[in-house]
Amino acid sequence: MSTTYPLTKTSSINVKPSSASLVVTTGEPAGIGMDILLQLAMQQKLGELSYPLIVLADEAALQQRFELIYGSGVSKLSGPLWQRIESVNDLQQISGQTKGNALPQFYLLHVGCAEPVVAGQLNVNNAAMVVQQLQIAHQWAASGAASAIVTGPLQKSVLIDAGITLEDGGMFTGHTEFFMQKSGCQKVVMMLANSAMKVALVTIHMPLRQVADAITADNVRQTVRIVLNDLRQKFGLPNPKILVCGLNPHAGEDGHLGTEEMDIINPVLREFQQQGANISLAMPADTLFTTRHLQDCDAVIAMYHDQGLPVLKSHGFGDTVNLTLGLPYIRTSVDHGTALDLAGNSATSDVQPSSSSLWQALIMAEAMVHSQQK
Ligand SMILES: NC(=O)C1=CN([C@@H]2O[C@H](COP(=O)(O)OP(=O)(O)OC[C@H]3O[C@@H](n4cnc5c(N)ncnc54)[C@H](O)[C@@H]3O)[C@@H](O)[C@H]2O)C=CC1
Ligand SMILES: NCC(=O)COP(=O)(O)O
């Protein structure tokens, strides 16, 4: 039997009795972000979360994506997928209404695209809507109206092509830098985590040619400080063991293959060792990432993006979480990009929710909110 549209409902609804909520940005509208959210909703996963989900997306694009993936007649739909709200305050106002209707899987705040969305086709004219989602999410999290931000993937290149910049006028390089600048932080750390390992980065989105110059004592020191602090506070590890990659092959081979380890990285790491931190000196990255070293270590600090992340993703692409350490609020994200080749493709509709990075990012954000509320 098929169920007819609309998928939203406008009558009174219940929300879970909590003041906490997770705000989800769906990111690039032509990409896979909305698809994965809809899959989780269709598989009744989102209702398992302890906190209501407020999703930022263009409603027409969301409806259209649903039809592309599932067709226009759906037999599995036992309740509304979403309830449209106009502002985060609506969640508080509707929380008292209990008329016995089934809960929606999520609450939708419509953020309109300038032009119709075509799955898989980037449109520079819709880039402003992507950044608008980030601005709303930041405002809500910074004001405490939302408890955490969970981001879907965006296409950095289309934002750059649209002339969108970071707060300081610099190139739009990613969510991490966007939220850092919006929050007035001087430094945050990108960490990716899965069941095999956690990898944090000293430098994030920059050309390889600039990386060596960005490995300064101050940068390494701030990275280690933030990682230690957040492993203690967010992951409940009172004395985490951290291994640190060198920058150069063989960690510089005693200065014959580069001197950053001797001159910059190790002096900073010795400061932390002297303060009692369980942290290594710079190790050759190729052998650091072996089972013997990884099995009893809590986190790895890598010097640059493609030193650490390919190893991590080879152990769990699709169920890794990207999180930002050092922000004044919780922010988790998917590990994958916009996957334009998969957007709107019905073949993705049977993805296993437990192996979805968005699901992992949601449950990690939920666990962090929960531990903060204790
Ligand atoms: N969190 C974010 O906003 C991220 C955004 N990006 C951005 O995404 C854009 C595209 O980047 P790419 O390097 O092509 O990476 P990508 O992750 O979009 O795609 C790489 C390959 O992985 C596949 N793939 C991606 N997600 C998948 C999923 N959930 N399940 C199965 N297969 C999946 C794609 O089909 C493609 O073959 C870039 O603009 C990049 O900056 C990349 C990583 C994270
Ligand atoms: N490799 C992760 C990535 O590029 C995502 O970055 P961000 O948008 O979370 O800053």
From TrEMBL:
Gene Ontology biological-process annotations: pyridoxal phosphate biosynthetic process; pyridoxine biosynthetic process
Q: What keywords does the record list, in alphabetical order? A: Metal-binding, NAD, Oxidoreductase
- EC number, UniProt record: 1.1.1.262
Record bears the keyword Secreted:
no
Show the GO MF annotations. 4-hydroxythreonine-4-phosphate dehydrogenase activity; metal ion binding; NAD binding
The lineage's top-level taxon is Bacteria
EC category: oxidoreductase
Keyword check for Cell membrane: no
- InterPro entries associated with the record: PdxA_fam (IPR005255)
Pfam families in alphabetical order: PdxA
The protein, known as? 4-hydroxythreonine-4-phosphate dehydrogenase PdxA
Native species of this protein?
Psychrobacter raelei
